[in-house]
Specification:
Blueprint (H helix, E strand, L loop, with lengths): L7 E5 L3 E6 L4 E9 L2 E8 L7 E2 L13 E2 L12 E3 L5 E5 L3 E6 L4 E8 L2 E7 L16 E6 L5 E4 L13 E4 L21 E6 L4 E7 L5 E4 L11 E6 L4 E7 L3 H12 L13 E4 L1 H4 L3 H14 L6 E4 L5 E2 L2 E2 L12 H10 L3 E6 L2 E3 L5 H5 L6 E2 L4 E2 L1 E4 L2 E5 L5 H15 L6 E4 L12 E2 L6 E2 L4 H19 L7 E3 L11 E3 L9 H14 L5 E2 L1 E2 L3 E2 L4 H11 L6 E2 L2 E2 L11 H31 L4 E2 L18 E3 L2 E3 L9 E6 L5 E3 L5 E2 L3 E6 L7 E4 L2 E6 L12 E6 L6 E8 L13 E8 L6 E8 L9 E4 L4
Parallel strand pairs: 20-21, 20-38, 21-24, 24-30, 30-33, 33-34, 34-35, 36-38, 37-39, 49-53
Antiparallel strand pairs: 1-2, 2-3, 3-4, 4-19, 5-6, 7-8, 8-9, 9-10, 10-11, 12-18, 13-15, 14-17, 15-16, 16-19, 17-18, 22-23, 25-29, 26-27, 28-29, 31-32, 40-41, 41-42, 42-47, 43-46, 44-45, 44-47, 48-49, 50-51, 51-52
Keywords: Glycosidase, Hydrolase
Family: Belongs to the glycosyl hydrolase 31 family.
GO molecular function: carbohydrate binding; hydrolase activity, hydrolyzing O-glycosyl compounds
């Protein structure tokens, strides 16, 4: 064995088992946080390099300053047992999880309790699993043995197939405009969390590395004869600090991770309507007129539009962009402009950026309180490349920067009629890792906290919106950030490329985000960068995009055209039908947003999420689950037939006709330009909106589509209701329509009742039994 280092058991406390490597003054701590979550913290000395974490909000919101890394008060910290019966091996276990630690090298083998027996789920690489300050070319390093058939999921939005096996990924937030959805890496977000699934042993585990420095993940792309098959994580800086999460199912691990990093914010209902956007309008000299023409076109084509994401051209001076600066030549009457949008039922979400160009009119305001990320060597703000210029990143670990930002959000946006902030270009591409941040009075190098800056920028905007309108439910968008961004904002997969292959690979990104605890998202429909989409491509992209919480058509086309629903008359009728379907299923999407908020359940899921026992669901496919609906969009050019695998373990209804299909089979459908195949699991209730949508028309008239159980069963389905716009739900102002399906006798018996606040009480409901269509 190589690089064996002998640890000794140092201390056992109520929550922690501490080991020490005397030669290097290395401490390895095992913190028993939950029955199924152990934390491994390896430090030189007893102090951590980064004193705070912003990743966890298990029970409540956390402050801007974060939480002390050694503060474990938010965890349950259950009873545990320590055994040292076997020489050189220490066993630490709860009711559910066992860590067997070899003192030589601190190699850990992990076991999960199944049927009262310990089943091995993972083990460290038997040769060199950690860097105990012996390797100069590696940072915080961790290697595990790779099982032959193991699958790996997670890391947030990553390109390529959902299974990360045999790939290598860089975790470094970047602005990769026009990225290749199959191959580009790195992308925007920093979520160093993955799930491993072993299809042979039927075991799963998840690991989250609470380290925000640039890092690399290898899932078997790298091989080495001396060590055997392995996977590894290598961070450039910081401590090795990881959370091992066990779970019988993949869904257990995903939902646990989402819960501990913070509740998904419940969005206002209006944020789920179609949102228009383009770079083009605000880049033009007559931007206000162009924006008004968009309203006119929505009216002309009778398109329901709930919001418009206002690109940064509104801030321009010349051809550059200056955050919080209104270009009054382009927008001669801002208040009149925003009021026109409000009067037509369209909320404005304004793009803001966390970097001030070096000739920004407000530059000196921030310099006065040293509010930029600073170059310590020269005692000046750190100069970085930003768009077509150089500029200075704001430091959101400085309380005065937060105050300055919130004041400008309020004065320059909210008071002028802007409803929401679009927090963009917040990847913080600072290449000098030694540049320093205020750190709330404890100076810290930027290499340790780059992703936190984007998170705190979004939190600052979030709180500004709440302070301005305390009872209005906030809605924000952010492009970058780290685990926990779901507490404040919706996100999207960035500036995708207009290409047919982007559709299926963006879908894989969506599944990866969901498995990583980020649920409220979407894609730029039609493609953001590159040529204009063809009519067929735009149609298929819209037919796919209608099922995401973020339903935004956004573009910056090379030929200066703008992606809109009406850009191609030849497909407009079918696009209108897709919009109508979106309006129909929107109450169900809102229901899923509530379940994401209250139960940490993803909105969009791979089919194996609910059908893990069906090995076929792990094969590459272009289907996904929207709650209990299986969506099988047409994502390939010229497609006339669609093969769809219906998972085993349920029968499936055709959403439109009620025709029933047995699970566990592949069906083949003839498809045309109108086709949007949807299947629904038996024993499902889908709330649908039967009111017609149109321009400035947002009526809601809910009926309940029943897809009855085919087995003998009694089940109750609770459909959430609130006003969709205020924070009154936090004060108990909500209710549930409870629908009970009793199939225990020969005929289906349907009963319902209402439970909750009288404001939403219903006395009659319309039920559509899909067995009787």
């Amino acid at each position: 064995m190589l690089d064996i280092r002998k640890f000794k058991l140092e201390e056992i406390s109520d929550t922690t088992v501490t080991f020490k490597l005397e030669e290097k003054n290395i401490y390895a701590r095992v913190l028993i946080l939950e029955e199924n979550i152990f934390r491994i913290l390896i430090t030189k000395g007893l102090n951590t390099i980064t004193p705070k974490t912003w990743s966890f909000a298990k029970n409540s919101e956390i402050s801007f300053e974060g939480i002390d890394k050694l503060d474990i008060s938010q965890w349950t910290c259950p009873n545990f047992t320590v055994n040292d019966d076997e020489e050189g091996i220490i066993s630490i276990y709860t009711e559910n999880l066992l860590a067997e630690i070899k003192l030589d090298g601190f190699h850990i083998t992990w076991f999960e309790k199944r049927n009262n027996k310990w089943l091995k789920v993972a083990q460290d690489l038997h040769t060199q699993a950690y860097n105990f300050d012996y390797w100069s070319d590696r940072g915080a390093y961790h290697a595990l043995a790779k099982e032959p058939k193991a699958m790996f999921f997670g890391l947030g939005e990553k390109s390529g197939a959902l299974n990360r096996d045999k790939r290598r990924f860089i975790m470094r937030s970047t602005d990769p405009m026009g990225y290749d959805a199959e191959t580009s890496d790195p992308l925007y977000k920093h979520i160093p969390f993955f799930i491993s699934h072993n299809p042979i042993s039927k075991t799963n585990f998840g690991i989250f590395y609470d380290n925000l420095s640039d890092s690399v993940f290898n899932f078997g792309k790298e091989i080495d004869n001396y060590h055997g098959p392995y996977i590894h994580y290598d961070a450039k800086a910081g401590d090795l600090d990881y959370y091992f999460i066990s779970g019988e199912k993949i869904s257990d691990i995903t939902e646990t991770f989402s819960q501990i990093t913070g509740k998904t914010a419940l969005p206002p209902y209006w944020s789920l309507y179609y949102s228009g956007s383009t770079m083009t309008y605000t880049d033009l000299p007559d931007a206000q007129e162009q924006m008004n023409n968009f309203i006119n076109d929505c009216k002309k084509y009778d398109i329901q539009c709930g919001s418009f994401q206002l690109s940064s051209g509104y801030t321009s001076i010349g051809n550059k962009r200056y955050v919080f600066n209104w270009n009054y030549t382009k927008f001669p009457d801002v208040e009149k402009f925003t009021k026109k949008y409000q009067d037509n039922g369209i909320k404005l979400c304004a793009n803001i950026k966390p970097c001030l160009l070096q000739d920004h009119p407000k530059r000196s305001e921030i310099e006065a309180f040293n509010g930029y990320i600073n170059n310590k060597e020269y005692n000046k703000p750190e100069l970085v490349q930003y768009w077509d210029e150089l500029g200075y990143y704001l430091d959101f670990t400085n309380p005065q920067t937060i105050n300055w930002w919130q004041s400008n959000v309020t004065e320059q946006l909210l008071k002028k009629g802007i409803s929401s902030t679009w927090n963009d270009n917040n990847e913080y591409e600072v290449y000098n890792g030694l540049a320093v941040c205020n750190g709330f009075g404890e100076e810290i190098e930027i290499k340790h906290v780059k992703p936190v800056q984007g998170l705190l920028m979004t939190k600052a905007s979030y709180e500004a919106q709440i302070n301005f309108a305390p009872n209005e439910r906030p809605y924000l968008i952010t492009r970058s950030g780290c685990a926990g961004l779901q507490r404040y904002a919706q996100t999207w997969t960035g500036d995708n490329n207009t290409d047919w292959k982007t559709l299926p690979f963006n879908l894989e990104m969506a599944k990866g985000l969901s498995l990583s605890g980020i649920y409220n998202f979407g894609h730029d429909i039609g493609g953001f960068s590159g040529p204009a989409p063809t009519p067929e491509m735009l149609l298929r992209w819209i037919q796919h995009g209608i099922f995401y919480p973020r339903f935004t058509i956004h573009s910056w086309n090379e030929d200066k055209t703008v992606n809109t629903p009406w850009m191609y008359p030849s497909v407009f009728d079918n696009i209108q039908k897709a919009f109508s379907l979106r309006n129909e299923v929107l109450p169900y999407i809102y229901q899923l947003c509530y379940e994401a908020h209250s139960q940490a359940k993803p909105i969009i899921k791979p089919t194996f999420y609910d059908f893990e026992n069906d090995a076929n669901t792990f094969k590459d496919n272009q289907e996904f689950l929207l709650g209990r609906m299986l969506i099988a969009n047409i994502l390939e050019q010229g497609q006339t037939k669609r093969q769809i695998y219906l998972p085993k373990g349920s029968s499936w209804y055709d959403y439109y006709t009620g025709e029933i299909y047995q699970g566990g089979q592949t069906i083949c459908l003839d498809v045309d330009e109108t086709s949007i195949p949807i299947f629904v699991r038996e024993n499902t209730v889908i709330p649908v909106n039967i009111a017609r949508a149109g321009f400035n028309k947002f009526d809601i008239d809910i009926s309940y589509k029943i897809f009855p159980p085919l087995k003998t069963i009694t089940s109750t389905h609770s459909i959430y209701m609130d006003d969709g716009k205020t924070n009154n739900y936090l004060k108990g102002k909500f209710g549930f329509v409870n629908i009970t399906l009793d199939n225990s006798k020969s005929d289906l018996n349907i009963k319902w009742d209402y439970q909750g606040d009288d404001e939403f009480k219903v006395t009659n409901i319309n039920i559509i039994n899909m067995q009787e269509i």
